[in-house]
Fold these 3 entries.
Entry 1:
Amino acid sequence: MLESLEKMLAKGVDNSLLRFGLGKAYLDAGNPALAAEHLQRCVELDPKYSAAWKLLGKALLDDAQPGAARKAWE
C-alpha cells in the first residue's frame, strides 16, 4: 500500500486524503518523522481534517516532539 501511495505522489497527485494515507502508512511502518511530514502537509491542505491533526500529534509524540504534539492536538 505504501508503495502505491508513493507512486501517486510521484505522479503529481497531492491532496489531503493521499497525505493522510501516507502519514498513517509511515506511522504504521515505524517511521514517525516521515509520517509527521506527510500529516503536516495534510493539515496544510485541509486545516479542518480533525483525524489528521490527531494522527499528526501521535506521530510527533512518537518522534520525541511532545511540545509539537501538544500544539497539534490543540
Entry 2:
Amino acid sequence: ELWQRSEALSCFLRMNCYNKKPLVIYGDKEIDIIVAMHAALKVGIPYVPVDILYPVERLYKIANQVEAELIINFSGKILDDDWKILNCIQLEEIYNTFKDYISCKEQWVKEKSLCYILFTSGSTGEPKGVPISRENLQNFTNWFRMYVKDDCKVALNQVSYSFDVSVIALYLCLPLKKKLLCLDKEMLKKDASLISGYLVDNRLDYWISTPSFLDYMLFLKVFSKDIKSIFVAGEK
C-alpha cells in the first residue's frame, strides 16, 4: 500500500513540480509523510521535513529558502496561499486518481542528487539547511546495517523526521521489513500506562531515541521484556 500510494503521489509531483524544487512536508508522525518522502525520491526531488513543533513562521522561512513549489500540510494549521498546499483530503483524491500509475526508474533520485534537506536552528537561530545526497544516505545505511538486529521485528519510530536519527527507522528498519511503531506527540501527552500498553501490545523490541527521551520513558516505566536492543543517538 505504501508503494502504491507513493507511485500515485509521484505522478502528481511529476506533473506539478516542474522546476524540481524541494517538497516541504509539515507534520508529525502521520503515515502519509513516509508516502510523500518516497514519492519525492521517485521523481528525483529532495524533500524537507518540518516538525509541527516549529511555528508557521519558521515553516515559511524554510519554504522561502528552498524556493518550494509545494507544501504538504499534515498539521491542520491554516497556511498562507503563497504556495501550492496539499492537505490530507487532497492526498486521498490523488491516490484514487493516479492509482494505476507506475513510476519510471530513470526518474528516481540519482546517486549524486539530494534525497532530503534537514534544517537546524543554527547558532544564530535562523534555520540552516543540511543537504543529504543519495550517496550520503547509502554510505550511512551500509555502515549502520550491522546494528539493526535480524531478530528484532518491531522498531520505534518516535524521533522527529526533522532530525537525522529518524533515518534509522525509515531507511534501515523499513527496507529490512521491520514494523515501524509510530509514537507521535499526541500520544505522548497521554497517561504512561496507555503508552506502555501500546508498546507492549505491539511487541516493540528495537528502541531508537535520544538519551534524554530514553531517560524520560524509563522514568515512566513503560518498558517490557520484549525489547532486545536499544540504540541512542543525537545527544551526549
Entry 3:
Amino acid sequence: MIVDGKALAREISDVLSVQIRECKKVPVLGILMIAPTPETKSFVRIKKKKAEELGIEVLEKELSENVSQEEVERELKELISSTDGVVLQQPIPSHLNNEVLCSLISAEKDIDALTDKSVHISPVAGAIKEILEKYEVETKEVPAVVIGSGKLVGVPAAKLLKELGALVTVMTKETGIDAEILKGAKIIVSGAGRANLITKDMVSNDAIVIDAGTSESRGAIVGDVDKDCYESVALVSPVPGGVGPLTVVSLFKNLAKSASCSS
C-alpha cells in the first residue's frame, strides 16, 4: 500500500481551515530566508501557497549572503514580535551562528521545533505521526530503524518513535547500515538524503517504510527508498507526495496552536 500524503494533507487542512476561520484573529506566519537557494525558495513558495489557502497572513524577509549576525538577529527579533510563529528557513550561511539565532525564537513561536525548548512537535515528526495514526500502525515494542541523525528528520523521528514505545535503532553514515537489524525492522524511517539507498532486498515484506529523505537524480526529486520497494512492503510513504505535504500541514497546525486557534 502506498501512502497518499496529498489526500491525507487535504483532510487535515479541511479541519484546520475551519479552526482558523473561527479564530479570533488572523494568524501570522513569519519566514526569514538568508541567501536562499532555488530549492529553499521552492520550499517557501509551498508554505506561502498553503498559508494563502488557509487564510493565514505571511510576513517574509530575505537577507543577502554577506549579512552580519547582528543584522540577522535584529530582523529575526522584529519577525518574532510581529507574528504568531517564525520559520528560520534552513540552511543558512555558515558564518552565522544558527544555534544562537534559533534560541531567540520563543518556545511558543518555534513552530519548526528547531530547539529543545519548543512546545511544538517537529513538522516532520508530526507528518510521520499522522501516517502512523491514519494507517493504524502498531508501534509499542515494535523494532524500528531510523536512518540518519539530522536535526530536521532523524532526531525528531527517533524521538517520536521512542515516545510511541518503539524499540529504535538509529543508523548513520558513521555507523553504517546493519543489514540484519534493518531486515528485522517493522518500521523504517529514512532521512539520509541518498537516492535509492534502500532496495527491496534490504527490508521485510511486512515493513512500514516512511521515506523522509530527498535528493536530486537526473533532474528529478527522489527519495531514499528505491521504487522497487513500493510493491514489496506492507506500507510505504513515497517521495514525492508522502511526508512532504504532511510536513507543511503539520507546520501550520503548530502555527494555529501558537495563535490559539486549535481546538
